[in-house]
Amino acid sequence: MPQISNNNKLFKCFVCNAAIHDDKVSYHEQVNLPVCQSCKGSDEENEKAKELLEGLADGFVCGCI
Ligand SMILES: [Zn+2]
Ligand 1 centroid vs 2 CA: distance in angstroms? Predict the structure, then answer.
């Protein structure tokens, strides 16, 4: 039986917002977001991930004050 699923699903790189084909997609370990091949391992990726992680932390801190 042929398996017909959503193979055309596109992901968006969280660094540059480019569409990534699902067989090229990688996930950033810490933020668990898709990243394209050209951003993977780049300084931009690290910075963006840091930004996102700090943003999350801020959100948590906010409620406590
Ligand atoms: Zn990218």
Answer: 33
